[in-house]
Amino acid sequence: MAYSRIVGTGSYLPKKVLTNRDLEKLVDTTDEWIVARTGITQRHIADDQELASDLALEASRRAIEAAGIKTEDIGLIIVATTTPDVVFPSTACILQAKLGIKHCPAFDVQAVCSGFVYALATADLYLRAGQCECALVVGAEIYSRILDWKDRSTCVLFGDGAGAVVIKKSDTPGILSSHLHADGSYHQDLGVPGQVCHGGVRGRPFLIMDGGAVFKFAVKVLEEVALETLDANKLGKSDIDWLIPHQANVRIIQATAKKLGLDMSKVVVTVDRHANTSAASIPLALDLAVRDGRIKPGHHVLLEGVGGGFTWGSVLIRW
Ligand code: UT7
Fold first, then answer.
1. Of 56, 260, 297, 309, which residue has the fewest beta carbons closer than 10 angstroms?
2. pLDDT for the residue 85
3. Active-site option among 20, 93, 134, 276
4. How many C-beta atoms surround the C-beta of residue 188 within 10 A?
5. Superfamily the domain 3-171 falls into
């Protein structure tokens, strides 16, 4: 039986940091409100010249170095992003060119904040099916470009960044299972409705969101998909060594942990420093917890995401 295993992780955050105090000068908000409602204290913001593929490149280089592979060994590139460099070609193809390799398939996955989980699940199935030996999976986002910086209800919530993993074919898991879902009937609750049309943009080119609806839905499905995943692997809640949920709001994360009976010491939290980096949030948090030694061989690591669409899903890993 063929499996896949993560053999290297990497991440990148743009240098510029925007604190809640900085935001107080831009919109009618306070550090106290943002911290109390979301847990966020700061976020990283990309330089005007940086593109999602640039952030992806830095994260990928670090993951490739950690994996100890040659860039030419990569047989598949998947980039999860909602903020691609351009409408097309895909950010994955642009990343491939920046990495200096050719020929392997490269494509983007558009599943918003679940994007990394969707991309990792896809790459895992690709490897299990014997289509390649080694894949690069990236989540990269520049949300600062799609925020209305006059809208306090959204602009305080997001940040920019990228995370990447290298996965290789393995005789033992590795990735134990993945579980993906979507319900498009919620597509109007979270999105950027603007359309590129006849040389302009038709509709609002900024992120809009029904925050309350997203909040309730997220807490519900993050519990459901965690239980579905444990059930599929005949594991119990106490078998989870690390929960790495999408980082949107510390209150969503705390509510999910409570429902799963998990102490917050078993949950990797980065939302306080990164804010919500959409498809990048899970690989950013994963890289942090791998590099600081929290995640150790044999640990069960549960990744779970939820986002626009709505989409949601999980990947369970035996590290
Ligand atoms: O990755 C998925 C993407 N999105 C999410 O996961 C977001 C999910 N939702 C949330 O995280 C929360 O719903 C929010 C953080 C967006 C909002 O928190 P809330 O506790 O649901 O607050 P609220 O929307 O009920 O707003 C409370 C009040 C409102 O004022 P009134 O109507 O009570 O007078 C807002 O106008 O807070 C006001 N408000 C703000 N005040 C200061 C909204 N944004 C701000 C702000 N600063 N930045």
1. 297
2. 98
3. 276
4. 12
5. Thiolase/Chalcone synthase (3.40.47.10)
